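Re: the request from the purification team.
They wanted to know what the chain is likely to look like in 3D before they choose a buffer screen. I agreed to run a prediction and write the result into the notebook, where they can find it.
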Amino acid sequence: MRIATLTLLAILISDQVLKWFVVIGLNLREVLYIEVLPPWFNLTMAWNRGVNFGLFASDSDTTRWVLIALALFISGWVWLWVRREGGGPMLQVSAGFLVGGALGNVIDRLVWGAVADFINVTCCGIRNPYAFNVADIAIFAGAFGLILFAGGKKDP
């Protein structure tokens, strides 16, 4: 699980450093919008109190703590499953991505009460109203990798 641990740490650190740089350093929490490469790539402040795309969002402390508990439970389950599976390197990388991303968003909920989303990508004349962060990308990539690489045993 060394590969999974190193991947988890890389994702968690890069996610948190980038969030602090953008939200605090660039003061996005107050300016709310920064054009980077208009119209394709911009920074748009969005405090996500729900899950993907703000689903199940609520200002309730109960929802916040339920989402924290759910993220920790799923992270622990994935970690134990990959460890028990004797997962090969790609399965471990996938687990590290998913758990690192989930923990990054858990830290946001603990520190700020919501997940800091700010990456906004638009393409092909279609305006994307949603923002996301590095943790969200990692969770998606990790889940996809777990599906793709599950079942393979670690090489001796």
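For the purification team: The mean pLDDT is 89.
Please add any questions underneath this entry.
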